[in-house]
């Protein structure tokens, strides 16, 4: 390779000598351009890789000559030639940027080419180094990571631009400062200062990662979550000469992780802790309570009638109600307590650090109270109540599972006791629950195994003493427990939904039996069956009634459906618009079946509500009939109810007539119909058939003539 060298030499003899040295026949390393003046040289710099200049120039003298050249070509290495007596100038030139100087006396064959060659090599090497450094600089400034380096004494030597932005110091400001001045780290959780890892990496001479969850405190005091590592820098001999730290802002990623873990632990609808987090908190609370010998309470809160609201008003309204409930529950507890959603309409409240179990009563009462207030959701004023079960640590259990289960059981008992109330767990509840569980299991097979039967109780015309109808009452012939009454299994069937298929069977069986009696020539009676509110909510209820009547060939007027007042009024209380039940009832009326309001007087009956429903019959609850005596309270109520039925043009049936005295009073006040043990207990179908035969033959269940005589003699006595 040939190097083009520019020679600036005014003295011809010297120039010839130099040319001679550089352009040997055997060596074609150099191609020399010779000019005599500096100004000429400046015009010929193109392609030149080295300059040899004699500083003794006519146009520009000494160092000025050098400065001019150096200024024009800062990256071309310059070798200056000087007179032996002027070595000082040579040194000054080197000081100003010349690569080297050579005494004119030493222009012998080998020295000059050697000096030139090494000068050109050095220049090429430093050019390459410069390029490499530049490449590194650009790279470091264009990566997203912040890079900081220090020397061995932990003073800053470098910051890339990301580091400048992130830390808030410019490289210029930071260089030379101890690293502690520039970089401050704290632990995100404890907020304690974290030792600068660069000092450590230098001391230990090994790469280390930052402590997890580390935050950088920026120059302006704001904080960013960062993550990354530090490594020592070594020289050629392996000695540590500094450290480099690479880190990046993970605030967004960390926020995302936090958000994800929040989502995993919270219920998306109410943002309350979910079941999993509740469980963790409960375990944590148990550990703390153990350590500090404190009590804690688990309150299981379940909304009454929520399913009904959800089904009838739609899920959006149901969701709105749950959110409203969540907000209110949170107002009932201290900030240290936990309110969580267990699922569906079930919430759990954890009360920490209680002194007495009774402290939970205060919260439970507050919860019931805030739930009772109407909830305004989607233009509906919703009325709900809650049932609360309470289990306390350590009295009712020492582990999370037991406490939750027992609070749930207690809640169940609160519901059974009539809702809108709270109950503490009691040990008997366990036995009752397992008993109930086994009954529920058996009930699943009861229909298939034909264990269910209908008993019939006559309804009497009190004026004539004749049987005018029958109420079908369900019985369960349990293989081990014997004959079970509806009170022992209907609530279970309602809870687990079995009531729907059981109800269908009852309807079918009662209609079939009725038809059998009709075919046997019995006078046209009506049969009443009891319908629970759960059944009424099944959309195809009415159409099923229609189909069954058709299948059995029974006139609709022969079938009466008894609905409890509480069932209907629950519906009214829950909603502003009692659409659902009223609709079903109207549909049933259109079919032509009779509707009776059962247990009348025990619920929240109001006349205005009554008028809304197409009811044919009121059945006065036996609690009033039982207490009928002379002019007691009940007598007044019964008289009132009889009058009310008459006004509303409804038939009135007195339930639970057990004594002659009750019968007398009822007849005296014109109660048209009655039912009760006084006439007959509910009996199996064949037996009821015999009652019907005797009745048809004129032997009534009570002697109406003698009753009239008694009444007459009373009236005479009174007169
Ligand atoms: P209910 O409809 O009010 O039925 C009247 C209840 O009073 C019956 O109890 C009957 O045996 C009882 N009873 C009749 N006369 C007298 C009396 O003079 N004195 C006394 N103390 N009680 C009398 P039972 O059969 O135990 O039924 C209880 C409740 O179970 C019924 O009350 C009804 O609400 C429900 N039920 C019965 N069968 C069915 C059914 O097939 N489906 C549904 N959903 N519920 C049913
Ligand atoms: Mg009934
Ligand atoms: Mg009743």
Describe the structure.
The protein is of the alpha/beta class and 719 residues long. It folds into 4 domains: 2-138, Response regulator (Rossmann fold, 3-Layer(aba) Sandwich), CATH 3.40.50; 143-255, Beta-Lactamase, CATH 3.30.450; 266-426, Alpha-Beta Plaits, CATH 3.30.70; 441-718, Alpha-Beta Barrel (TIM Barrel), CATH 3.20.20.450. It is built from 28 helices and 30 strands. Strands 6, 7, 8, 9, 10, 11, 12 and 13 form an 8-stranded antiparallel beta sheet that branches. It has an 8-stranded mixed barrel with strand order 21-22-24-25-26-27-28-29, surrounded by 5 helices. Helix 4 links the parallel strand 4 and strand 5 (100-103). Helix 3 (62-72) runs parallel beside helix 4 (87-96) and helix 20 packs parallel to helix 22. The longest helix has 32 residues, at 111-142. Mean pLDDT is 88; it is low at 573-579. One magnesium ion is lined by residues 471, 530, 562, 598.
Output the keywords:
719 residues, alpha/beta, Beta-Lactamase, 4 domains, eight-stranded mixed beta barrel, 28 helices, rod-shaped, binds ligand C2E
Given as residue ranges, the uncertain stretches (5+ residues, pLDDT < 50) are 573-579
Domain module tally: 4
Number of alpha- plus pi-helical segments: 28
- Tell me the name of the CATH class of the largest domain: Alpha Beta
Specify Rg, calculated over alpha carbons.
51 Å
CATH superfamily of the largest domain: EAL domain
Mean pLDDT across all amino acids: 88
User: What is the beta-strand fraction?
Assistant: 15-25%
Largest sheet: 8 strands, antiparallel
